[in-house]
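INFO  loader      accepted 1 record
INFO  loader      residues=155
INFO  predictor   begin
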Amino acid sequence: MIASPSFAVVGRQTLAYAMLMGAATAWAVTIVTVRAHRFTSSALSLAPWQMLIAAILLLPIAIFAEGATPAISPLGAATLVYVAPVATAFAYWAVVEAGRRFAASTMSMALLATPSVGLVISAWVLNEPINASLVAGVALTATGIRLTIATTRSR
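INFO  predictor   done
INFO  writer      dumping C-alpha cells
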C-alpha cells in the first residue's frame, strides 16, 4: 500500500520492487541470524570492514548500471561524510546490538515501523503530500504491529 502510488508493473519499477522484497527478506534472515549467533568481535569493530567490502563489491556494479561517477561537490562530500559513518555504520551497529538483546519478533516489529515513521517525518519536515494509499499503508502496518504484539502478549 505504501509503495502503490508509484508502482508500475513494467520495466525498472518491477525490478526495484523485487529488489526491495529481496532486501526485506535479507533483513529477516539477518535478524534471526544475529539473534542466534555468538559474536567474538563487536558489530562496531566489524562495520567499517563490512562497508569497505560492500563498497568494493558494489562500486563496479553501480558504475556498470549508472555510468561513470560524476564529480562530487563539497555538499556531496559532506553528505558522504555523514552517510558513511553515521547513517550507515552507526545505524547498522545499533540495529545489530538491539537484535542481540531483543527477540527477533520485537526487532522485526520495530523495523517494520520505519517506513511509516519516515513518511510522517517527511510530511512534517518537507511538507510531502500524504494521500489515501499512504494513510492506508501506515494504518495496515500499525494494525499488523498491534495484532502481532497482542498475539505475543497473550501467549
